[in-house]
Amino acid sequence: MTTLPGIVVTGASGRMGRMLIDVINKSDRATLVGAIERSGHDWVGQDVGVAMGGTALGVVVNDDAQATISKAQVVIDFTAPSATLAFAGFAAEVGAVHVIGTTGMTVDEIAQLKPASSKAIIVRAGNMSLGVNLLTQLTKKVAAALDEDFDIEVIEAHHHHKVDAPSGTALMLGEAAAEGRGVALSDAMDSGRHGMTGARKRGDIGFSAIRGGDIVGEHDVMFAAAGERIVLRHMATDRAVFARGALKAALWGLGQKPGEYDMLDVLGLND
Questions:
Q1: Partner residues linked to 6 by β-bridges
Q2: Domains located in the chain, CATH noted
Q3: How confident is the model at residue 193, as a pLDDT?
Q4: What count of other Cβ atoms lies within 10 Å of the Cβ of residue 163?
Q5: Could you give the CA distance from residue 8 to residue 141 in angstroms, rounded to a whole number?
Q6: Which residues, listed in sequence order, are joined to residue 177 by a DSSP beta bridge?
Q7: Residues 71, 119, 140, 158: which is the catalytic one?
Q8: pLDDT at 76
Q9: Looking at residue 244, what is its pLDDT?
Q10: Which candidate in 162, 219, 234, 248 is catalytic?
Q11: Residues lower than pLDDT 50 in the chain
C-alpha cells in the first residue's frame, strides 16, 4: 500500500485536468486517487487512463465529488468558480489541501473561500508557474520605482477556448503593479476599451486581451513614457509548467497550517 499523498483532480477531461493527471502519474512524490467530472459526462465510469486514450491507471472517473474528495489528502482544481466553491467545502470537511488554479472568480466568490480556509489549506493563484510569479514580483518593484509618467499596460494572449478575460494571470500582474504604485486596482483598472473612450487617464493600469489559436499563455507588462518603454514578458509554451507548479503547491501545502496561501508563499517570494 502506498504512503504517498493521494491527489484528486477535478475537471479531469479538461486541458489542465489531463495535464495534471499525466504529471501526477509520472511523479514519485504523489499518487492519483481520484478524478472528478460533471454528471452526465462521457468519462464518468471509465478508467481515467483509458478515457485519455492510454492505458488503465486504476482510477475511475466519478461524478460524486464529496465521496471522491473524502479519500484524498489534496484536491487540485482548475474548473469554474461555482464548482470550486463546492469543492472547497468538501476539501475542508476532510482537511485536504485545496490547490485552486480556477480563474474568473469575483471578489465575493473569493471571500466565500474564507470558511474553508479556517479548516484546511487553500493555495490559490492566477498562475502556478515559477516564471510568472517572478514576473509578478518584478512588476511590483518596477511600478514602485516609476512614477505616473509611465503608463502601465498588461497585455495577455491565450488560446481561443479561454472563456474569461482578462486572464487570472493578467489580473495578478495588475494587482502587483497597483500594489507597487500604492493604489487599489479597482480604482485604477482600465479594460474593455471600445469606441470614443477619450484620452487615457493618468495613473490607470490598462488591460488588453488577445484570444487565438492554441496560445498557451503570454503576458507582457509595459511601462510606457515619453521616449521610452520597459517591457517585462513571460511566455509559456507548454501547459505542463502550470501542472508542475500546481503539484509543487500541493506538496508544499501538506506541511502548512490552515489558511489561504498563494504561489509566492510556495516559492518563498513573499516579502
A1: 31
A2: 6-124+239-266 (3.40.50.720), 130-236 (3.30.360.10)
A3: 86
A4: 9
A5: 37
A6: none
A7: 158
A8: 98
A9: 94
A10: 162
A11: none
In DSSP notation, 234-256 reads EEE--THHHHHHHHHHHHHHTTS
**CA-to-CA distance for 240 and 237, rounded, in angstroms?**
9
Residue 158 is among the residues annotated as catalytic for this protein? yes
- Give the tens place of pLDDT for each residue, 175-186: 999 999 999 999
Q: Please tell me the predicted confidence (pLDDT) of residue 130.
A: 87
Compute how many other C-beta atoms are within 10 angstroms of the C-beta atom of residue 205: 24
Cell of 249: 503547491
Q: 271: how many CB neighbours lie within 10 A of its CB? A: 5
Q: Residue 126: what pLDDT?
A: 82
d(CA 154, CA 261): 24
Position 122 scores a pLDDT of 98
Distance separating the N- and C-terminal Cα atoms of the chain: 41
Q: How far is CA 172 from CA 17, 93, 140, 219, in A?
A: 22, 29, 10, 11
- Is 201 among the residues known to form the active site? no
